[in-house]
Amino acid sequence: MDPAPFGLWPSPISAGDLAAATRFRDVAWDADGRTLVWLENRGPQGVLVCQPPGEAPRDLNTTLSVRAQVGYGGGDFAVARGHVYFAEYCGRLYRQALAGGPARPITPQFGCAAAPAPSPDGRHLVYVHSDEGRDVLAIVDCEGRAWPQILIEGADFYMQPVWHPRGDRLAWIEWDHPQMPWDGTRLVVGHIARGRDGRPRLRDRTPLAGDLDTAVSQPCFSPDGRHLVYASDQRGYSNLWCYNLQSGATRCLTEDDHDIAGPAWAQGNRHCAFSADSKTLYFVRSENIQRRAYALDLASSAVEPVAAFADYTHVEQLTAAPRGKGLAAIAAEHAIPARIIAGTAAKSEIRARSQSESLAAADLSAPAAVTWTAEDSKPVHGLYYPPASSRYCGRGRPPLIVVIHGGPTGSTETGFEPRNQFFATRGWAVLDVNYRGSTGHGRAYMKALRGNWGILDVEDAIGGAQHLCDHGLADPERLVIMGSSAGGYTVLRTLTVRPGFFRAGLCLYGIANLFTLAADTHKFESRYLDSMLGPLPDAADIYRERSPIFAADKLRDPVAIFQGADDKVVPQAQAEEIVASLRRRNIPHEYHLYEGEGHGWRKPETIEAFYRACDSFLRQYVLFA
């Protein structure tokens, strides 16, 4: 191998490669159990792809963009009886035949729709609707002949409506401020009756599970109509529970210390699915920072890995065909970019690839789970990506980028992570930190950040970097911290609390002023800070003390600020407050404002420009400093 300076290795991954990649959002079977539909994000465009049996995949939409926008999105489409129902970017629901023909709107253009759920008889569609701060479950006939009606209202938020196979009951998730969906939600079941006009109406509602301190998610009726399965963290971990609709008995199906459901940041998250014969429950769970697929035999309670997905360390949006033995999911591994995988539990095939897959595994970094001890003697978790190349090697210790995920209630797992591979293949080490407050390690670990945001995340970012330095895995003189959104907040907060520990920072649409975040952010997160910091005005001193903008004069390390001009979650003004302070004091910095971008990058030209800017900034202020 040829010696070369860390961070300057010629990489097989270019910024253009990352910009050209397709992102898969969801996958679903039609009622025939053979036709597969999935959603691809190609830049800012959401494209539905249909593959009937024995045919090549084909695009269903060209001009319309499939993208639900309730909260952080998700719940973009559903497939039933030869049709797909999808939420378009501007908020309307559309119906389109899988056999061909144009899409037709079935709801008027006001507010935003998500999570369409067709009734078993194919006559009606229940969906989440949000307009001017009011969320409801609405219902419309599947051809859009009549005006939509409110079916269920009263809660602040709704998610994941699902029909009973007979069409006489509906289950859904709801919750109210100040809870977030990972804090406390309710699973509710209601009976549906038809009025004299033929329209379904809610006859009653019964809460089945969840409360202010228990998070439940993804209700799923068995195809035979006997059971309702859902995820609940009432035991301290997100386990699967089963409610017998005949006897009323409830039992836990997975009594182990692994999280099955992740945080419900978006509509449409799916972590379990019944087989068509109701005998097997397929699910995914977080285990050793991997997310693998399993099959649960409901008769024997035996749990076995799903053979068709054995080669993948990250499986999501698992779905079972309503007929036959079909199983599909989005799957990836550290050296395998996301794929659409479909087949049976025993054997599957690749239906679509998100990238060219031209890279050899030897040229990519294999992440390893790492754990270190925090100041309170509690374990902290992360993923370490060593520098990787089949051609080059460095001398001494590599520079390190400490990556802070968003949320802050989020997590990082061992799928294909193009950002980390971009840096690792250039000779950087990367540490993805699952700081205390992250999900995937049980409810107690997640709750540790309540009241401690801006403290524990900072401690764990520093502690993780120090741990790697102490073990000879990183150069203490060339440490960088990087994060987006809430992770960007931790970047700014760390650079003000411990200036000089990191050589530089990369902050993507990071939060600078907690007061303005509480006042200006969207409805979904408008009360999030009540648990992370405390409710206002009582906690005003905490908000001021932990807002980076009020300590901006302590910033002295070079920092690059990246911001979307159309960001509704963390508006542009947050970034510019920090930039103004840096400019006044002549602190080395860069400010990149991307027009037409929101809370994250969608345009290929933005993604390419962003990675080029990161590489240039790190060379100037870290590698050549």
Model description:
This protein has about 625 residues and is of the alpha+beta class. The protein has a domain of about 280 residues: Rossmann fold. About 15% of the residues lie in helices and about 35% in strands. The strands form 9 sheets. It has an 8-stranded mixed sheet with strand order 30-31-34-33-35-36-37-38, sandwiched between helices. Strand 27 and strand 28 form a beta hairpin. Helix 4 crosses helix 5. The radius of gyration is 24 Å and the shape is globular. The model has no long low-confidence stretch (mean pLDDT about 95).
Question: Can you describe this structure in just a few lines?
Answer:
This protein has 625 residues and is an alpha+beta fold. Helix 4 packs across helix 5 (486-497).
Blueprint (SSEs and pairs):
Elements: E1 2-3, H1 15-20, E2 23-29, E3 36-42, E4 45-51, E5 58-59, E6 77-80, E7 83-87, E8 93-97, E9 104-105, E10 112-118, E11 124-131, E12 134-141, E13 149-152, E14 157-163, E15 169-175, E16 186-194, E17 200-209, E18 216-221, E19 227-232, E20 239-244, E21 250-252, E22 272-274, E23 280-287, E24 290-297, E25 303-305, E26 314-320, E27 327-333, E28 336-343, E29 348-353, E30 368-373, E31 379-385, E32 392-393, E33 400-404, H2 418-424, E34 429-434, H3 443-447, H4 456-470, E35 479-484, H5 486-497, E36 504-508, H6 514-520, H7 529-532, H8 540-546, E37 559-564, H9 572-584, E38 589-594, H10 604-623
Parallel strand pairs: 1-32, 33-34, 33-35, 35-36, 36-37, 37-38
Antiparallel strand pairs: 2-3, 3-4, 4-5, 6-7, 7-8, 8-9, 10-11, 11-12, 12-13, 14-15, 15-16, 16-17, 18-19, 19-20, 20-21, 22-23, 23-24, 24-25, 26-27, 27-28, 28-29, 30-31, 31-34
Helix pairs in contact: 4-5
